[in-house]
Structures are given as structure tokens and as C-alpha cells.
Specification:
Elements (H helix, E strand, L loop, with lengths): L1 H19 L11 H18 L3 E5 L6 E6 L7 E7 L19 E3 L2 E3 L7 H16 L6 E7 L9 H7 L8 E4 L11 E6 L1 E10 L5 E2 H4 L6 H10 L22 H7 L6 H8 L12 H4 L5 E9 L9 E2 L2 E10 L5 H15 L5 E10 L2 E2 L5 H14 L4 E5 L4 H10 L3 E3 L15 E3 H18 L2
Parallel strand pairs: 3-6, 3-7, 7-17, 8-16
Antiparallel strand pairs: 1-2, 2-6, 4-5, 5-18, 8-15, 9-13, 9-14, 10-12, 11-13
Helix pairs in contact: 1-3, 2-3, 3-13, 4-12, 11-13
């Protein structure tokens, strides 16, 4: 099958380019026609790749693309998830190439969507084509490509609830993640979830003169800072009672495997221009940013913030705070625990309002799952190294939703690299990773079908 990939790789790239030329920016309301155009193009590509049928299905927002090849109801089914929407290209002046005119240069594909996620979706489509055209497909395959991932997938949960039978599968394969490095292959096994709040603190009914009233009336900014300071302790732990009760601790064996991922602490600090690394006591930096919860103030404001001086004691102060949560924790439960604690530590002489803005659950894939073992074997065969399991600090809330709604685990088998600059100007994707990705997914089908 490698011969088939080699002889068709130029066509594979050109088909990818046909998608990348469509500016399917989901956050831009003026791009609705481009969203539909991209969805229609995916239907054409899935059909030509060997799907028995493919179609565009409506949602309350941008449509989804659904395709399938059902060989036998007795065989297991793989559901492929990806997204066809992309981030805006701005600022355009920072691009070295035209964002929607893809080119191959220096061994990389350049353009918006090269990696995230048109390039990785094309890996799935062309691996599927390869096994179909060579008569080696031994399982059923379904495709679900959405058009709103970059704006939080607001329509997909409802679509999944309404189409549970259509999306019925044994495993979901997601290529919207990355690897540590081309010479350090990895598979993402966990994602942190998220909780996000806005706090409003009110003191006096209006802004006051700080000289006349300062020292006699509570300053909302001062009080807000004191409250936030009580959210963590000197060991870097979050102090909210019950916050850690449901955390699933990572086993020694998995922590040992994670420690094999190369990490240069000095280089990390240099790149970020920081003098030291901090966090929860007893954990490495990699662990703090992946397998442990975190607390951050994302914004804080109030009073006079323009140039020059104004001696004001403000009436109000605001902050936006977030926590990243880990497997075992429930976002709704954490949302209430944190809100209750903020109100508890607030002094009685101020008014506090806590608004929960949004959240999402974490996700964990057991490394002893048969489908994970199939992916592990596939990566090892193509990259000549056993992949290391890695947790990621970011969130893909829809993956947790898949498990909740469809009752199916997801394998996060992605091929992007940090140097791909997704979401930024000059997004790119190494051609070698594109080709290895196709070969790896081909091997996954072989291993999964055993």
C-alpha cells in the first residue's frame, strides 16, 4: 500500500490544496457561502475516496459533512472526526505566503488549514482511500466533519444527540492534535477541561475621592485582590474546599512514561523570557501543565486605567478567572465549589457577584484500550519508535461530549508539530508528517481489524 501512497501523493496534495483555497472561516459571518462550498467539496472528496455515500447535513449553525462505508453490521465501526473550518488569517501582513494560496516550500505545506485541520483530515481521507482501493478495509468507517470547531462547536452536541444511531460506532479517531516531535512520536491520552468565571465586586455606590475616603471605605480592587490571593497557597495548590476530591491521580507507571518526553527547562524559560518556573509542589512542569488542575486570573480591571493620575477610590472591580480541570472532576460541580468559596472569603462589607461563563469536561483515554494499542502499534511501525503517551493542557470539549452522548472513547491520533504555527500567521505542515500520517492510519486499520 505504500506504493499506492507514493504514486498518488501529488494528487493527495492537490486535493488538500483545493480545500485550503476555500476561506472557510467560521467566525466570519460573511464566509457562510465559503463554509457550504468547503462542505460540498468534502462530499466530493469522500465519495472519490471510496465512501458509499456522503452528504451535507444541517445544524442550527454551519452544516456537518457525513460519509460512510458500511461493509457489514458484524464488523466494528470507526468514526472519523475532524473539522473543515479554520481560524481567520489576520494579521495578513505577517504572512510570508498568501494564506489561502497553499504552496509547498522547504519541505512544508504553507497556508491556513495546512495542519489545523484540513491537512490532518486529508490524512484520514487518503488513508481510508488507500485501504479501500487496495481491498484491505476490514471494518466499517464513518466520517463526521464539522464546521464550527474553531468557535467552540456550538451546534455539534445537539446534532450528536439527534443522530445517535447514525453516529453509532466502536471507536472515534480524532486527528486534531499533535506529536512531541517527528523523532519523538506520541499519542495524546488526556486533555484538561475548563471552568471560567467573571467576578464583580461592588463597594460604594459611586467612585470616591481616595484622599477624602481612602482608609475609611473598602476599596473593591483591594478587596478583590485579597480574595484572589486566597484561592491558592504557597505550595501552588488551589484552596477551594473539595476541589481535588474527584481528581483521578495518574499512576506511577504512566508518569514514568510521560517523563520520557524530552523537556529542556532552561530552553523553555528562555523562550518564554521568564526567570523561574512555578506551580504545584511535588510535580514537574510538564505534569503541572497537563495532569494537574490549575488556577489563573485571565483579566482584572476597575478604577482609573488611562494615562496620568486620578486619585479615585472605585465603586467596582472585576476579574475573569479560570481553572483547568482534569479527569474525575466535573465542570458543573467545580463551578459551584469555586463560586461558593469566592462568596465565602468575601468580606461582608462588599457585594460580590460571580457569573459562570462557560466550561467543558476533561478527557482521558486508557492506554490499555485495544484501539489505543492498535494506534500505538501503527505509530511504532511507521516512525520506528514506540510512541509515548502524553497529556495536553488544552481542551477539546467535544471529545468529552462524544463520550457522554455517544458512549464511545476517542483515540487522539494527531500528526501536527508545535512548529506548525496553527492559529497564527504562516501556518504550515511538514510534508513528511502528512505522508507518515497517511501510512500510520493505514496501519491502524490493519491493527484495529485484527
Amino acid at each position: 500500500m505504500n506504493n499506492y501512497i507514493e504514486s498518488n501523493k501529488e494528487r493527495f496534495l492537490e486535493e488538500l490544496f483545493s480545500l485550503m483555497r476555500i476561506p472557510s472561516v467560521s467566525s466570519d459571518p460573511d464566509r457562510k457561502d465559503d463554509m457550504r462550498k468547503c462542505a460540498d467539496r468534502w462530499v466530493e472528496l469522500l465519495l472519490s475516496s471510496g465512501a458509499d455515500n456522503a452528504t451535507v447535513l444541517p445544524t442550527k449553525g454551519n452544516p456537518v459533512v457525513y460519509g460512510e462505508k458500511m461493509i457489514s453490521p458484524e464488523l466494528p465501526t470507526v468514526l472519523i472526526y475532524s473539522h473543515y473550518d479554520v481560524m481567520p488569517a489576520a494579521p495578513l501582513e505577517l504572512w510570508k505566503t498568501s494564506p489561502f494560496e497553499p504552496v509547498v516550500k522547504d519541505g512544508k505545506i504553507w497556508g491556513r488549514g495546512a495542519d489545523d485541520d484540513k491537512g490532518q483530515a486529508m490524512i484520514q481521507a487518503k488513508a481510508f482511500e488507500t485501504v479501500v482501493k487496495n481491498g484491505e478495509l476490514k471494518c466499517n468507517v464513518k466520517f463526521l466533519f464539522e464546521g464550527e470547531e474553531e468557535i467552540g462547536s456550538p451546534s455539534l452536541e445537539k446534532f450528536c444527540i439527534e443522530n445517535k444511531e447514525l453516529l453509532k460506532s466502536d471507536i472515534i479517531l480524532v486527528s486534531d492534535t499533535g506529536m512531541v516531535a517527528e523523532d519523538v512520536p506520541s499519542i495524546t491520552t488526556g486533555l484538561r477541561g475548563l471552568c471560567y468565571w467573571q467576578i464583580e465586586v461592588t463597594g460604594p455606590s459611586h467612585d470616591l475621592h481616595s484622599g477624602i475616603y481612602g482608609g475609611g471605605v473598602a476599596n473593591p480592587i483591594n478587596e478583590l485582590c485579597k480574595m484572589i490571593a486566597q484561592m491558592t497557597n504557597s505550595d501552588g495548590k488551589i484552596t477551594v474546599p473539595g476541589f481535588y476530591d474527584d481528581v483521578v491521580n495518574v499512576s506511577y507507571e504512566e508518569r514514568k512514561l510521560m517523563s520520557k518526553v524530552p523537556f529542556d527547562e532552561n530552553k523553555y524559560m528562555t523562550e518564554l523570557n521568564v526567570k523561574a518556573l512555578t506551580g504545584e509542589k511535588g510535580y514537574s512542569t510538564t505534569e503541572r501543565t497537563t495532569i494537574r488542575p490549575s488556577f489563573d486570573v485571565c483579566g482584572i480591571w476597575g478604577g482609573y486605567t488611562q494615562d496620568g493620575a486620578k486619585t479615585v477610590l472605585p465603586s467596582k472591580a472585576y476579574a475573569k478567572i479560570s481553572t483547568r480541570i482534569v479527569p474525575g472532576q466535573d465542570s458543573e460541580k467545580i463551578a459551584k465549589l469555586v463560586a461558593d468559596y469566592i462568596k465565602k472569603v468575601a468580606p461582608q462589607y462588599i457585594d460580590v457577584k460571580v457569573e459562570y461563563l462557560h466550561g467543558g469536561e476533561s478527557y482521558l483515554c486508557p492506554i490499555d484500550l485495544p484501539a489505543y494499542k492498535a494506534a500505538e502499534a501503527a505509530v511504532e511501525k511507521v516512525f520506528n519508535k514506540k510512541p509515548v503517551p502524553v497529556r495536553r493542557g488544552g481542551s477539546i470539549p467535544i471529545v468529552a461530549s462524544f463520550e457522554k452522548i455517544l458512549g464511545v472513547k476517542s483515540i487522539l491520533l494527531g500528526f501536527g508539530l508545535e512548529s506548525d504555527d496553527i492559529h497564527a500567521p504562516n501556518e504550515n505542515f511538514q510534508v513528511s508528517m502528512f505522508e507518515k500520517g497517511i501510512k500510520t492510519v493505514v496501519e491502524f486499520y490493519k491493527e484495529f481489524s485484527k
